């Protein structure tokens, strides 16, 4: 059973808030009966109509995007900035999809977008361990002790992050920078940046290369593609 306004939003009728207004203003019927209470719940067997027109659930769709810099990981932005959803919609995707989790404004890389709310909630729930692999360019050079700290789990914002996998890819001694691969299992706000800041190495650039069983492959910044059936299956099995 789901709340009526949620079912309407998932069917593409309107946003959840706009759907609530349609309900309270008397535009919605369930099994031929007018419904104006927001607490109403419906099942897949109930017939929901808006102004006499039955609604039909949108087919579930799943996309992978290589998020470019200076794009926000939301469906809408109050500041008018370009969003990840805008990228898909500009290319003709009409389904109301949403990003699974977020990448920072200046962070690039793999982001999943879908209208499968159940899967999105599962993937973002703290109890599920979804590996996320990042490539980070940092100031300075990690010492062996600092690498060990990251593997053991560092503390930031009063929270101790779980241990990460760390691999040094390259070091530029002349510019005092290093490129590393870091794999985390949680999804705290700015987690990679805060972990590396905590051991004294601010992040200069950050890119997410993979998410659970998914990898970007040859997908370039700003490009996207539908997930393949086996990828959708693996993503659902990953949690």
From TrEMBL:
Q: Which residues form the RNA-binding S4 domain?
A: 2-59
- What InterPro entries does UniProt report for this protein, alphabetically? PsdUridine_s_RsuA/RluB/E/F_cat (IPR042092), PsdUridine_synth_cat_dom_sf (IPR020103), PsdUridine_synth_RsuA/RluA (IPR006145), PsdUridine_synth_RsuA/RluB/E/F (IPR000748), PsdUridine_synth_RsuA/RluB_CS (IPR018496), RsuA_PseudoU_synthase (IPR050343), S4_RNA-bd (IPR002942), S4_RNA-bd_sf (IPR036986)
**EC class of the enzyme, as a word:** isomerase
Q: Which SUPFAM superfamilies match?
A: Alpha-L RNA-binding motif (SSF55174), Pseudouridine synthase (SSF55120)
Its Gene Ontology molecular function terms? RNA binding; rRNA pseudouridine synthase activity
Q: Which UniProt keywords apply?
A: Isomerase, RNA-binding
Where does the record locate the signal sequence feature?
none
The record's EC number reads: 5.4.99.-
Presence of the UniProt keyword RNA-binding in the record: yes
List, in alphabetical order, the GO biological process terms annotated in this UniProt record: enzyme-directed rRNA pseudouridine synthesis
Q: Does the keyword RNA-binding apply?
A: yes
Q: Gene Ontology terms, cellular component aspect?
A: cytosol
**Which spans are transmembrane here?**
none
Query: What NCBIfam families does the annotation carry?
Result: pseudouridine synthase
Protein family membership: Belongs to the pseudouridine synthase RsuA family.
- The protein's name is Pseudouridine synthase
């Amino acid at each position: 059973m789901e709340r009526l306004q949620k079912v309407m939003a998932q069917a593409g009728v309107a946003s959840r808030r706009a759907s609530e207004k349609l309900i309270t203003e008397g535009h919605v019927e369930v099994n031929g009966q007018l419904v104006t209470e927001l607490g109403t719940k419906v099942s897949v067997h109930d017939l929901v109509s808006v102004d006499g027109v039955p609604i039909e659930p949108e087919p579930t769709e799943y996309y992978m995007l290589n998020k470019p810099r200076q794009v926000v990981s939301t469906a809408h932005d109050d500041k008018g900035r370009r969003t990840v959803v805008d990228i898909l919609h500009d290319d003709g995707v009409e389904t109301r999809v949403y990003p699974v989790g977020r990448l920072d404004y200046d962070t690039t890389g793999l982001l999943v977008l879908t209208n499968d709310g159940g899967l999105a909630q599962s993937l973002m729930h703290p109890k599920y361990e979804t590996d996320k692999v990042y490539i980070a360019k940092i100031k300075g050079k990690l010492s062996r002790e600092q690498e060990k700290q990251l593997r053991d789990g560092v503390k930031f914002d009063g929270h101790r992050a779980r241990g990460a996998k760390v691999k040094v890819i390259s070091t530029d001694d002349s510019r005092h920078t290093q490129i590393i691969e870091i794999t985390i299992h949680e999804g705290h706000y700015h987690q990679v940046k805060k972990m590396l800041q905590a051991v004294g190495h601010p992040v200069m650039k950050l890119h997410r290369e993979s998410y659970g069983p998914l990898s970007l492959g040859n997908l370039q910044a700003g490009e996207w593609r539908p997930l393949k059936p086996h990828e959708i299956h693996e993503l659902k099995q990953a949690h």
